[in-house]
Design brief:
Elements: E1 3-6, H1 16-22, E2 27-31, H2 45-57, E3 63-66, H3 78-97, E4 102-106, H4 113-130, E5 136-140, H5 153-161, E6 169-174, H6 175-180, H7 188-201, E7 207-211, E8 214-215, E9 226-227, H8 237-242, E10 252-254, H9 261-274
Parallel strand pairs: 1-2, 1-10, 2-3, 3-4, 4-5, 5-6, 6-7, 7-10
Antiparallel strand pairs: 8-9
Helix pairs in contact: 3-4, 4-5
Cofactor: Zn(2+)
Function: Endonuclease IV plays a role in DNA repair. It cleaves phosphodiester bonds at apurinic or apyrimidinic (AP) sites, generating a 3'-hydroxyl group and a 5'-terminal sugar phosphate.
Binding site for Zn(2+) 1: 66, 106, 140
Length: 278
């Protein structure tokens, strides 16, 4: 099992590996550009060369890229939809250049679930037809805040089934989002039932990553608030999650709150302490 964090790219990609090592990361997630804007600069060849050599040198693998927050592939607004598809294509390309095997995308929002899901499917298929590479796109489950789609496993399964290139699509399961969407993870029995539900509607074979986050808000809150491992509402359930047999070969990425490195070091220590020797 590999554990890691979402790592800042401030100062360039060449700074990422140093930050990852300080946190004892065996795997990492990062943005390829500013996550809160549409504009982006071209990747600097020297910068990405240093990054790709460093992650190989320190055996940090796999690498996950997370898309920016602004794209909404579920939007009925054609301008926003087209910008979102273009953004997806750009990040698929950037992921490949960063030697990242996976790109993570959030399900967008739409008041009309049926229309929103159809737009999402259309957008992904369009992007895949424009760029053909080996990067696998992972759809992330949401907490269901506001008009967010993709908070229940049935809808995620429906979207996945309609993607034309099945080899290039998969899922990341965020534990905080699942809990906030109403999937109980506080007991061993609850974790087992939630995983069976996931497998029935999506398929464990489509799961490539766990976003290992506790929740600051209660079960079914529909409020996306990550918290420190075992110190949130999921609590002891985090131990049942990390030790479940269905997840034993998966990487775990933490997106827990931080003001500096010490919180990440604390969460890494706690996560490692939860893992039972087999």
């Amino acid at each position: 099992m590999k554990l890691g964090f979402h790592i800042s790219i401030a100062g360039g990609f060449k700074k990422v590996t140093e930050r990852a090592i300080k946190r004892e990361c065996a795997t990492i997630q990062l943005f390829s550009r500013n996550p809160r804007g549409w504009k982006y600069t071209q990747l600097d060849e020297e910068d990405i060369s240093i990054f790709t050599k460093d992650i190989t040198r320190y055996s940090i693998d796999p690498v996950f890229v997370h898309m920016p927050y602004l794209p909404n592939l579920c939007s009925e607004d054609d301008e926003l939809f087209n910008k979102s598809v273009k953004s997806l294509i750009e990040d698929l390309n950037r992921s490949e250049r960063l030697n990242a095997q996976f790109l993570i995308v959030h399900i967008g929002s739409n008041r009309n679930k049926k229309v929103g899901m159809e737009r999402m499917i259309k957008g992904i298929n369009q992007a895949f037809s424009k760029i053909r590479n080996g990067v696998i796109l992972l759809i992330e489950n949401t907490a269901g805040a506001g008009n967010e789609l993709g908070y229940n496993f049935e809808d995620l399964g429906t979207i996945l089934n309609e993607i034309e290139d099945q080899k290039r699509i998969g899922v990341v399961l965020d534990t905080a989002h699942a809990f906030e969407a109403g999937y109980d993870l506080r007991t061993e029995k609850a974790v087992d039932e939630t995983i069976k539900n996931f497998d029935r509607n999506i398929g464990i074979n489509r799961l490539y990553l766990i976003h290992f986050n506790d929740s600051r808000t209660k079960l079914g809150s529909r409020s996306d608030r990550h918290w420190h491992i075992t110190r949130g509402e999921i609590g002891k359930g985090m131990g049942y999650i990390i030790n479940h047999s269905a997840f034993k070969h998966l990487p775990f990425i933490m997106e827990t709150p931080r003001t500096d490195t010490k919180e990440d070091i604390m969460n890494m220590k706690i996560a490692k302490s939860l893992i039972k020797e087999i």
